[in-house]
Amino acid sequence: MAAITKEDILEAIANMTVLEASELVKAMEEKFGVTAAVAVAAGPAAGPAAGAEEEQSEFTVTLDSFDAAKKIPVIKAVREVTGLGLGEAKALVEGAPKELKAGVSKADADAIIAKITEAGGKASKK
What we know:
126 residues; alpha+beta; 3-stranded antiparallel sheet; 3 strands; 56% helix
């Protein structure tokens, strides 16, 4: 049995959805007792891009639009992401484009966008 190489691991991660990658990061944080911010912060300092412009760390996720045929799944996804009640989530979805969440990490923003996209909506981060 051949050992798994770093390239094998990177290829497996590259083939994951954003939500799967986000879940993997959380599992690694729990298993090794570290945060992804530490690993990310250590990465660029060791590479040739050391001293480059600092990467954005907080994002605002916006619901841009939704497929009218998938309105109910989008409302459910918005409720799950925001913790809003049914009426508030419905109003938010119907009023798109609207801000869903502000001040979230890149991984969380990508996970939220993936969840909204999977439900039939379109979301973006800034």
